[in-house]
Design goal:
The protein is flat, with a radius of gyration of 24 Å. The protein has about 260 residues and is mainly α. The chain is built from ten helices and two strands.
């Protein structure tokens, strides 16, 4: 009887796992379909009168002048302006989703986010420093890096915050998650205070630049930027499945 009960429980557990796996596949399929619809709507929304049917038809027929379903003007708008923005938005969304899942597994907390450990505040501090001090104290750096100065400063600010946080939370080769969370809150407060000082020093033009940067925009997306950013994102996403077992162990409290 005991063996039969154990076997029955195992069968029920297997059936339950199968049901969850089936539902997960359905949800993923629906989300992929929703993504395709969102991409088509993004490509066909705006001043141009290109419809979803004409865009899909142009993809199927090719770019030959006699076969193209879009006019030359609409092709320029769709392929050189809208499509880079859409692709960059999809890549950024995928990166944010995966990095959020990794962070939640690492901290064993479904509410964990970059703001909780100070990464967002550090990135904001680096960007604000370039915007406010780019023409004065940081002029040599901004002139050498050009348009790359702002994103690199934000990246370096977030990376510096992460390294400091890791050093503070690590003792004798062991990293305390609780210490990391508490230290992250303190570092975020410090970075926000320094950001406030820089904002106080900013003029009207710099304040406008800060506002638009904090809001975020895909207006500057180009195929060149997609190549540089997309290669990093794709490599990072491809590496994540190999870390899944370790993250699962962390989430279960086994590490």
């Amino acid at each position: 009887m005991v063996d039969q009960s154990i076997a029955g429980a195992g069968t029920l557990a297997t059936a339950s796992d199968g049901d969850r796996s089936g539902r997960a596949r359905i949800v993923i399929l629906l989300l992929c379909l929703g993504l395709v619809v969102a991409v088509l709507l993004s490509l066909t929304s705006g001043a141009s009168d290109a419809s979803a049917v004409s865009v899909v038809g142009d993809w199927l027929l090719g770019a030959a002048p006699g076969n193209a379903a879009l006019s030359a003007r609409d092709r320029l708008i769709v392929y050189d302006i809208r499509l880079p923005r859409v692709i960059l938005g999809v890549l950024i969304g995928a990166a944010l989703a995966v990095s959020g899942a990794v962070m939640q597994g690492l901290f064993r907390n479904p509410l964990a986010d970059p703001g909780l450990i100070g990464v967002s505040a550090g990135s904001s501090l680096g960007a604000v420093a370039v915007i406010v001090l780019g023409a004065t104290a940081l002029a040599p750096i901004t002139s050498a890096l050009g348009t790359l100065a702002l994103p690199l400063a934000a990246f370096c600010g977030g990376l510096a915050t992460t390294l400091v946080l890791y050093q503070v939370a690590t003792r004798h080769g062991q990293t305390s998650v609780a210490t990391m969370l508490l230290a992250g809150i303190a570092l975020a407060a410090l970075a926000m205070a320094l950001t406030g000082i820089l904002i106080f020093m900013a003029d009207d033009r710099q304040l406008r630049d800060l506002t638009f940067w904090q809001l975020g925009s895909l207006a500057g997306a180009t195929w060149q930027k997609i190549g540089s950013v997309g290669s990093i994102i794709v490599l990072a996403l491809a590496a994540m499945p190999f870390l899944a077992r370790g993250l699962n162990a962390l989430a279960l409290g086994e590490a």
